[in-house]
Amino acid sequence: MEPKLTTQDAIAKLRGKIKDIKFPSSLQDKLEEIFAQLEINSRSESTFWQFYQSDSKYLDWLISLPWNTQSQDILDLSFAKEKLDEGHYGLDAVKERILEYVSVLALQKQRTPDKKIRAPILLFVGLVGTGKTTMAKSIAQVFGRQLIRVPFGGLGDPLYLRGRSRLYPEAEPGAIIKNLAQVKSNNPVILLDEIDRVADDALNTIMGVLVELLDPEQNSHFVDHYLDYPFDLSQCLFVATCNNTSRIATAVMDRLEVIQMPSYTDEEKITIGRKYLFPKSLSENGLTSSDIKIADTVWLNIVRPLGFDAGVRTLSRNIDNLCRKAAMEIFSGKTKQVIVDESNIKNYIPQW
User: Fold this and answer.
1) CATH code of the domain in which 305 resides
2) Which of 85, 132, 142, 187 is 20 to 30 A removed from 26 (C-alpha atoms)?
3) How would DSSP label each residue in 180-236?
4) Same domain (yes/no): 209, 227
5) Alpha carbons 248 and 206: distance in angstroms, whole number
6) Are 248 and 197 in contact (CB under 8 A)?
7) What is the per-residue pLDDT across 293-330, written as a single tens digit (0 to 9) for each?
């Protein structure tokens, strides 16, 4: 059985945790205050261990944060175009805007290497399934940065973003700081997903937090309630998405560059279905291209079985459903190859 730590041993253990960490000097001063308070509390063991657990957890969070660690931007136009084309068919105007931003950031870095780069904050606006979220993922790949996704759908508590003060039991940092600790980089792409879908009763307070996150004059010293110390978010690349802008505060909109995500045409969806979604679904369902053949004449039925849909999410589900039904027929021995044409399309996908 290991001997119980004395209070002084416990304090020394905490000091050892942070010995090699380069914290900002003002944060180091704050930590010295914490250790001084622990020394005072060490006179009473019962009080000491209560504070020790809380302080140890706090130090663990501080140690996990990327105070001085960031990824190196790629800033290569040909690579950026390749990644955008890889993840998205069409959307040429949207891709052009992103390539412009890559060019601007590359020039800024070349000509003023010592200056902090403040990238524009992009807001992708469009209907469900038009590729807003996946475009944000592609941007992270284009820059070679880590991606953090913060979902806003149904969000009703601003403390989810800002954390809770250490004065409360079980307090923890908010989603921004938690994710930074996880990705170990202080310049990730931060995706603020569906910012128009927050709960009604929390709309104003959450919009207030968004202003602080997105304002370059404020986000360089973003204060999470748990940390109670500013963290520099100015090198993060923020990307937001929404279905429409009617519920987004004017102060937030003023800080965003709006990019409209267009609806896909039927022809574009057919190409996306054939080239991207169908091969992916075959792989995910244990099938090969020789197991299912789809006639050219039925692709429009797969794209639009029940009416118009702006995005490709329904198309993806339709193809998945078709592949699962085909997999069951092949596995049960009913057939060795499924051929989908006008005579049997209704067996695989509901039609009007």
Assistant:
1) 1.10.8.60
2) 187
3) HHHHT-SS-EEEEETTT-S-GGGHHHHHHHHHHHH-TTTGGGEEETTTTEEE--TTS
4) yes
5) 10
6) no
7) 999 999 998 988 766 666 788 889 999 999 999 999 99
What local confidence, expressed as pLDDT, does residue 1 receive? Answer: 37
DSSP string, 54-77: HHHHHHHHHHHS-SS--PPP---H
- Verify that 247 and 328 share a domain, yes or no: no
Flag whether pLDDT at 267 surpasses 80.
yes
Domain assignment present for residue 69? The answer is no
Report the C-alpha gap between 215 and 202 in whole angstroms: 20
Contact of 282 with 292, CB cutoff 8 Å: yes
Residue where one domain finishes, among candidates 193, 226, 260:
260
Predicted local confidence at residue 179, as pLDDT: 97
Assess contact for 348 and 325: CB atoms under 8 A: yes
pTM of the model: 0.85
Alpha helices in the chain (DSSP H): 7-18, 25-41, 45-64, 77-87, 92-111, 132-143, 159-162, 175-183, 203-214, 250-253, 266-272, 278-284, 299-303, 313-331, 345-348
Final residue of a structural domain among 260, 294, 323: 260
Rounded CA gap, 50 and 46, in Å?
7
| φ and ψ of 120, to 5 deg | -65, 155
Looking at per-residue pLDDT, the higher value among 120 and 228 belongs to 228
Residue 70 domain flag: no
Distance between CA atoms of residues 333 and 84, nearest Å: 41
Q: Let me know whether 117 and 256 are in one domain.
A: yes
| Single-letter amino acid, residue 58 | Y
- How many folded domains does the chain comprise? 3
The three-point CA angle 333-336-339 to 5° equals: 120
Q: Is residue 2 part of a domain?
A: no
Is 1 part of any domain? Answer: no
Containing domain of residue 203, as a range? 77-260
**Residue 65 pLDDT exceeds 60:** yes
Query: What CATH number does the domain containing 183 carry?
Result: 3.40.50.300
